[in-house]
Design goal:
mainly alpha; two-stranded parallel sheet; 10 helices; 2 strands; 65% helix
Length: 326
């Protein structure tokens, strides 16, 4: 078999596996056959990875713009392996192992893109590894506000890359065999998958942490966090001290308090504000004026009450309603 035929065969395998993975992710492939198809693709892509290595398609001293266009699609091999491995349904006891395998494939994919200058953003685990080797304190994680801005910028970049990819596909359909359009399409596809890989890695880390915690719980290495609840005591509120005595006799096991005692307790616990908390204290002159006004108001009220009492003595109840009373 010639090298050209070999390359055609390799490209067919890669395209087939790409289609299977995309259909599984989008739910277009039957669930009964999806797992077998994924395992078959993983085996084929592992073999394809060995063939790429034997053919030396990538050189360590080159950048991506120096590589032939036909070699660029094979950058996606570790990414597809990561996606297929992550989509496998496995026994709970093996879930951590498969998540770690998927994570390792994503790391390999992103580090290759970084080494060949396809992507320019910093890979956190690489930065940590380099700082550990150089015994340098790693940079602090950016605050939440900065992380939101970074995430928003990444979404905007992904949207722009998706649009660019569709444009390059359209150009390629119009001019079949246009190497520039094909090359641009491959580069933007690699960068788009790099962004997806970073997002998936965040979810993988969370899943692995949760699975490890559940495993420790099951083995007894970790104890579940106790649920602390503030116990609310049962009590009866009586209107007066006399009722308190009665309820106390009837329900000796339940504490009984009067309304005043209950209110004072709520004030002391801070649940109610102090009675004087919202009172506005005026100047001494205003206080004196207020006291004089209150005294005048009291005299007027007493006079009104006295006139009302005299009126009731002279006019008994019902005296004015004489209709139909004989």
């Amino acid at each position: 078999m010639s090298n050209h035929d070999d390359e055609e065969s390799m490209k067919e395998v890669l395209d087939h596996c790409e289609k299977v993975i995309e259909e599984v992710e989008e739910g277009k492939r039957s669930s009964t056959t999806a797992q077998d198809d994924l395992r078959d693709c993983i085996a084929k892509m592992e073999d394809l990875t060995r063939r790429v290595s034997q053919l030396c398609l990538f050189s360590d001293n080159e950048m991506y713009d120096e590589l032939p266009t036909a070699s660029l699609p094979y950058f996606l091999l570790p990414c597809y392996l990561a996606m297929a491995t992550n989509a496998l349904i496995v026994d709970r006891s093996e879930m951590i192992k498969y998540k770690e395998m998927s994570k390792a494939y994503f790391h390999d994919f992103l580090e290759r893109l970084s080494n060949y200058d396809v992507i320019g953003f910093v890979l956190p685990w690489v930065a940590k590894r380099m700082s550990d080797e150089a015994e340098i304190r790693p940079a602090r994680e950016p605050p939440a506000a900065d992380r939101r801005l970074i995430k928003q910028k990444r979404y905007e970049q992904e949207a722009a890359m998706k649009e660019a990819r569709e444009n390059f596909r359209y150009q390629l359909q119009k001019n079949n065999g246009d190497d520039n359009a094909l090359r641009s399409l491959m580069v933007v596809t690699l960068r788009l998958y790099a962004h997806k890989a970073m997002d998936t890695l965040n979810y993988l880390d969370e899943e692995i942490n949760m699975l490890e915690y559940m495993s420790k719980l099951k083995s007894g290495e970790e104890q579940p966090l106790p649920k602390i609840k503030s116990k609310l005591p049962t009590f009866i509120i009586a209107k007066s001290a006399e009722q308190k005595k009665v309820f106390g006799l009837g329900y000796p096991a339940i504490p009984t308090v009067t309304v005043d005692e209950w209110y004072d307790g709520m004030v002391k616990s801070g649940r109610f504000a102090q009675p004087t908390a919202n009172r506005v204290v005026g100047a001494p002159e205003e206080c004196e004026q207020s006291e004089d006004e209150d005294a005048g108001d009291d005299d007027e009220k007493r006079a009104k009450l006295q006139r009302w009492d005299e009126y009731k003595d002279d006019h008994r109840r019902g005296w004015g309603n004489m209709h139909n009373k004989g």
